[in-house]
Amino acid sequence: MTSEPVPPQPTLVDGAVTLRPWRADDAEAARLQHDEEIARWFHFPGVTPSAEQQGAAIERWQRDYADGRRVVSFVVEVDGRVAGSVEVRRTVGRDATGHLSWALFPDFRGRGHAVTAVRLLVDYAFGDLGLARVEAYVDPDNRRSVRLATRAGLRREGELRGYESDREGVRRDAVLLARLADDPEVGTGEMFRAALNAGLPRKRTISQGLVRNERGEVLLCELTYKRYWDLPGGVVDPDESPAHAVLREVGEELQVPARLRRLAVVSWLPPWQGWDDAMLYLFELSVAEDEVARATLEPREIRAIHWADAETVRARCAPYTARLIEHATQLLDAGAPTAYLEDGEPPTW
């Protein structure tokens, strides 16, 4: 118990939405509006709580507020009707951090009331409670709540595997969304761009180099960590251009100077063996054959390098790499412009 006096729980208002403390006489109106969606996302064993269960919950929320405001739960009212609840819970062991949760009853969903309620709660958490960070953990399938949190100013920060168990005891993932006290104000362009950037999908980007000698053979790397031979190159680092990445990778792995000639193809790669989908940029590179002969290989990644004809490419490379090389060399020999491929082949639309 805290020794400091606890101020009365306030009432917060924004238009038609009001957040106020729970009262004992709210129990019946609240419990009868529970539905399957609330039970699903909160992992409740049943849909409609009993009067005793709802009354006990209200008493618990009142005690938690009195106990140093470690949990603050508000009734959400819309035009004077009990419409749901929002809550902020201080996170044990973490300084100035709170855990947000919310639920709106069926008749009040889809009209923006929940966003308003969560924004009021976040402002209260930063202002009255003095928190520096608030978080929400949302099931990835609960897309309504993920969108709601984003509109309320929280940013998507990642996905936690096996975060909690559902009603059947199955471990479920959770999307982590959070807002800091000094984040840009909700409704500004800066906040909109930051939230959108955090929530957009991020495709992996791969950059590889096609090096050919006078005989038309392709330079391939025999790798230490997989059985297939592959083109030189690798994954593009965050905030790095694909062109810079391929030159960096060739320099690090082979220690030979390379020059960009042109972008040969861009190929979309579908998910494969545990990897998410990716975009592959294949650049034609100019590297002198005598420089290749003097290459110094990165021993943790490359066992050897080889000049490979078309038959060797098909025998030694993964099928999608062989397709990529075949189509890229045909396009380059024909003087065709940069092409778009999917899984190493021209798309069939």
UniProtKB/TrEMBL annotation:
Stretches assigned to the N-acetyltransferase domain: 17-182
Pfam families, sorted: Acetyltransf_3, NUDIX
CDD domains cross-referenced by the UniProt entry: NAT_SF, NUDIX_Hydrolase
Span of domain Nudix hydrolase: 201-330
Name of the protein described by the UniProt record: GNAT family N-acetyltransferase
Species this chain originates from: Barrientosiimonas endolithica
